[in-house]
Amino acid sequence: MRKRTWLAWLGAALLALPAHAGEVVKVGSTPGVTSDAVQALVPEARAAGIDLQLVEFTDWTLPNEAVNNGDIDLNFFQHQAFLNNAVKERGYQLAFVGLGLLQNIGIYSNRYQRLADVPEKARVAVANDPVNQGRGLLLLQKAGLITLRNGSAVGASVHDVAENPKKLRFFEIEGPQLIRALDDLDLVVVWPSYFVNAGKKAQAGQALLYSGIADTFYAMGFVARSDRAQEARLRKLVQLYQNSEAVKQTISQGFGHDPKLYTLPWQQTTKEPSHGK
Question: Do 98 and 110 lie in a common domain?
């Protein structure tokens, strides 16, 4: 009798388990397309036996702190250049597990329709932080406007400009303020996502030039503690993400369905975007 009672209790307990019961994986991200993409993966993760839980952060420091301390399993908000800088400054033991999204950057202007029209002594805005300023300068070099002292070296600053045939004048501006500089300066190197977030999706697709798949050092990816980077369930989750149609649709929607604004960096066949106008 006791055996039957215990079996009945066990059966009831199993039925009472939530449908998403499985190995818990907590992923930290910041509001926007990255967190939306993670949320879109929840049903597929559940079907694969992973209880995917999204944890949102509102700054760029806490996600790494949380992974390093073991409070969450992964974060998804940063590229390799940002991670390298964080590891150097704070001594984190963190490593990439897989790529998740490459947000292209673009050269924008409210005054000129072609790069060839940019005059001498034009005023150019670039990000003021060392990581993203280097990326912007590499795009200006790709455009043929400047040459950097170390060629394609990552982490270049305006002081590394070796050749500047048009005598461009550089203005270092905080990232979120860059799109506001368009009214006052000639060129601005900025993320198209800033236009999308500001409700200006049409303008996001009007850059003179975009970065692309060759820029994968700046692709955002999933980051874990170094001692867990090869963990099966974490790598399984990243694989699910990369193969998810729901994730791809969510990302596309987040960028206004404009393929010039982003790249899926794990897809080697992705064509590199170039001119927007």
Answer: no
Contacts of 57 (CB under 8 A, 6+ apart): 28, 29, 30, 63, 66, 77
Asked whether 57 and 205 are in contact (CB, 8 A), the reply is no
Looking at residue 268, what is its pLDDT?
58
**Of the residues 127, 156, 190, the one at which a domain ends:** 190
Looking at the domain assignment, is residue 202 inside a domain?
Answer: no
Do 114 and 185 belong together in one domain?
yes
Q: What is the pLDDT of residue 225?
A: 98
Helix (H/G/I), strand (E/B), else coil: 230: coil
- Of the candidates 174, 190, 206, which is a domain's last residue? 190
Regarding whether 111 and 84 lie in a shared domain, the answer is no
Contact by Cβ (8 Å): 185, 26: no
- Helical packing angle, 80-90 and 62-69, nearest 10°: 70
> Same domain for 175 and 141?
yes
H helices present in the chain, as ranges: 2-16, 33-40, 42-47, 62-69, 80-90, 130-142, 192-197, 201-204, 232-242, 245-254
Please state the φ and ψ torsions of residue 222, each to the nearest 5 degrees: -85, 130
Domain ranges, residue 52? 21-103+216-263
Residue pair 51/21 in contact (Cβ under 8 Å)? The answer is: yes
Please, which residues bridge with residue 224 across strands? 95
Q: Using CA atoms, how far apart are residues 131 and 82, in angstroms rounded to an integer?
A: 6
4 domain-assigned? no
Q: Which residues of the chain have pLDDT under 50?
A: 1-20, 269-275
- pTM attached to this predicted model: 0.78
**Residues in Cβ contact with 34 at an 8 Å cutoff, skipping those fewer than 6 apart:** 76, 77, 100, 101, 220
Whether residues 222 and 173 fall in one domain? no
